[in-house]
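Sample entry was shown:
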Amino acid sequence: MKKLTLFITSCLIALLMGCQSQPVAQQPLPPQMPDWIDNPGNGVVGSSVTHVKGRHFQEQLAISRARQQLAARQGVDVEYVQMSTETVTNETANTKVKRVGSEEVSTKTVRAKVVEKWINPLTREVFVLVVPTN
């Protein structure tokens, strides 16, 4: 009788321990970035985090940044300064943006095209690869 009681008790403890343990939730893998982000070859990579005006402006900003880097590589000086002021009063927002740009070009045309685009699914950051065209 003691053996039967010990056996039943052991089975109940094993059953309770098995039910209590929960499977380990798998952490989502970080997104696999394309190789061209770290090794753009003869191109340049531009990126932009989320933009208040939406995805289109976010992509345009990433492309603009890449083109500026490409132009600088080819001897064109491009400089933009953007100052913004945002005021929020009683649920009303007012934003003032002043953008000053200057370019120093020595009769050189820089042509480029976007060949790759990737959006990080976790951070929603947009990456674009821009390469020079002839």
Notes: The mean pLDDT is 78. Helices lie at 2-20, 35-38, 55-73. The chain is about 30% helix and 35% strand. Strands lie at 44-48, 77-89, 92-104, 112-119, 126-132.
